[in-house]
Structures are given as C-alpha cells and as structure tokens.
Design brief:
It is a single chain. This protein is an alpha/beta fold. The chain folds into two domains: 153 residues, Aldehyde Oxidoreductase, domain 3, CATH 3.90.1170.20; 178 residues, TIM Barrel. The chain is built from 13 helices and 14 strands. The strands form three sheets. A six-stranded antiparallel β-sheet has the order 13-12-1-5-3-14. A six-stranded parallel β-sheet has the order 7-6-11-10-9-8. A two-stranded antiparallel ribbon has the order 2-4. A hairpin with a 2-residue loop joins β12 and β13. α4 packs antiparallel against α5, α5 crosses α6 and α10 runs parallel beside α11. The longest helix has 25 residues. The chain is elongated.
Length: 346
C-alpha cells in the first residue's frame, strides 16, 4: 500500500516541532491530514499492530451518535480519508439520524484510517451539533427566515465550519463571509451598533447605508441604538420610505431584551404610518423557545450563541468486524448493524 502521508509511528510524533514563529494555534488542513490532531494512543495502536504483523488486517468500523440530530461534516470526512484505501458509507448531509443509528461505516485495513478516529469523530460531533441547533431554530420559526450570527462566539478557525453547518441544518443565511460562501450563499448583514454610535444618529447612518450599499442588499436598519425602538423605526421609515426592507431590534438584556409587547408596538406603529411592508428582524439571546414566542409577529430571526454554543453530539466509533469475523467490545452486539439509508461515498 506504500508509505503513508500521515503520522504512524511514535518516532514521528517525537519529531513534530512547533515553530516559534507560529502565529495561530489552530490546526492547518495539512496538519489535520497528517494526523497531528489525533490522540497519540491511536499512533501507539499502529505500532502494536505493526509489531504483531496485524497492521494490514481488514476491519469494519461503525460510527453512531449518542442522541438524535442532523447529519453534517460528511464532506470533511471524505477529504480526511481521501488518500486512505478504504470504502466508506454514510448518511447524507442534512439527513435526520436517530439515537445510536449507524451514520457512517468504514471498511478496510485499520492502518488506513485508525489514526483519524479522533478528528473524524470531532468533525461529525461538532458539525452535527451546530446543524441540529439551527434545525431546532428553523422548526420554531415555522417557515420564517433564520440567520446565523454566531461567528463571534467561536474561534475564527472554526467559525466557517459552524456557519456552514448551520446552513446545512436549515438556516437561511449567515453573516460570516467564509461560512456563507462555503455554504453556497452570499453573506448577509446590516450595520453594527459601532457605526451608528460613531455617526451619532441612526437616520444619518441609514441614509449612508442606502447610498453606498449595492441595490441587491436588503435595507435593514438597527433601531435600538439611541432612541425608543418604535420611534427610531418610524424615523428611519419616513426617510427611506419604500426602500426600507426592515428594522432590526437587538435590544440588550439590560433594557429587558426583545419582548413580544415591544415587537407588537413597533409593528403597530409602522402599520399605522403606512409601512406595513417593512419587516421586523430580531436578534440577541434567541433560542427555539423565544423564537416560538415571537414567531407570529417577527419576520426574520438572527441567532447567535444558541447555534454556535450548541453541545456537540457525541459520536462513537466501534469495530464490528475483524478479518471478516463478527466482533465487538462488551456491551455491544458483534457484527455490522444494517442501515439501508447509508450510501457509498468512497
């Protein structure tokens, strides 16, 4: 099978050195492919198997989740195993899986994929967790638009992965430039509070936004910076008129956050002033419960930490066959678990 491009000996582990000039601590794609993010005991396993001349033993491994959710991360798994001489079956990205359902199966020599167990499970666990959280928000929104604003809550190295996962899970768009483009969309956003604070007036900032931003970008203006949200919404609407697509409420928790009475007042005052077509966008501390409570009155939900902070869905990899013989650790059933939903991806 030839020499491997990934780490496979403890001597190679010892030779891994960190440059004093390294600027970021996140793993590079090359380091992930080389197996540098694995747990060292998987390298030890390779040493043991080589010593016993069992490194080429054919096995079947299966991956299952600890709870139900949305499958995500498959494309990165394919890339991780691209050079490995194995066969792989998987659920498709975006599919729902049940607790302990087999979501991925690998068949081939253990030496071809064993060192990748750690990153493979991590890819699936986090990606599925983020995708599932986005799915929960989309369900609560009952068809209304859900946007992912979570990049600020995670390390920038994984922010694009998180926001792409949210899109796989059902989010309609995201603000992170790379995350949106990885998901096949253009990033979306409005004006941050910082710009309005520096300008000193929401209406002046809104006028500038209208003049400089391409016409295809929705005109959605923050209205909670200086004045009462209902008052500011009317000021902006009277200036932009039919060019205003929406107003965004991001009221901080120090002032009670975004509440149903507040949203209803803004909606009523806009309607009474002839701006029934202006959408209401809300953000700040949203979760499925709060989205459900606002769903009838709100048009767009911007969700941050509920998606970005979603708990990973624990994934487990078990060997179920060794040298064509059914086997399993105690507590598990030996042999492959049939799942007709799996499709061959490699």
């Amino acid at each position: 099978m030839g020499e491997k491009s990934w780490i496979s000996t403890l001597e190679e582990v010892e030779k891994v050195k960190i440059s004093p000039d390294r600027r970021f601590f996140s793993a590079t794609p090359e380091e992930i492919k080389q197996g540098y993010t694995t747990d060292v005991y998987f390298v030890t396993a390779q040493e043991i198997l080589r010593y016993l001349h069992l490194d080429s033993t054919s096995v079947v491994a299966e991956v299952f989740p600890r709870k139900a959710g949305i499958m995500c991360g498959v494309q990165e798994v394919i890339e991780l195993l691209r050079e490995s001489e194995v066969e792989v079956w998987s659920l498709e990205e975006g599919e729902w899986f049940e607790t302990k359902e087999v979501v991925l199966r690998i068949k081939g020599p253990y030496s071809e994929f064993g060192v990748f167990e750690t990153p493979l499970l991590g890819i699936l666990a986090h990606s599925a967790g983020w995708a599932t959280a986005a799915w929960e928000c989309k369900q609560a929104a009952e068809g209304k638009t859900v946007l992912c604003f979570g990049a600020r809550h995670v390390h920038p190295a994984v922010a694009p992965v998180m926001e792409r996962s949210a899109l796989i899970g059902g989010a309609d768009g995201s603000a992170c430039i790379l995350g949106a483009k990885l998901g096949g969309k253009e990033p979306g956003g409005t004006i941050p509070h910082a710009a309005i604070l520096i300008v000193g007036d929401t209406v002046v900032a809104a006028r500038a936004f209208e003049e400089i931003v391409p016409s295809e970008v929705a005109r959605v203006i923050l209205v909670d910076t200086f004045k009462d949200e209902a008052e500011e919404s009317l000021r902006v609407a009277q200036v932009l008129q039919n060019r205003l697509d929406g107003v965004r409420l991001d009221t901080p928790e120090e002032r009670g956050g975004v509440t149903l009475p507040l949203v209803r007042e803004v909606r009523a005052r806009l309607d009474q002033a002839g701006f029934a077509g202006v959408k209401i966008v809300v953000s700040g501390g949203l979760n499925p419960g709060k989205i459900a409570s606002l769903q009838k009155e709100v048009d767009v939900f911007g969700v941050g930490s509920y998606i970005s902070g979603a708990k990973p869905i624990d994934m487990t990899m078990d060997l179920k066959e060794v040298a064509d013989q059914k086997i399993a650790k105690r507590g598990r059933i030996p042999g492959v678990v049939p799942n007709p939903r799996l499709i061959k991806i490699k």
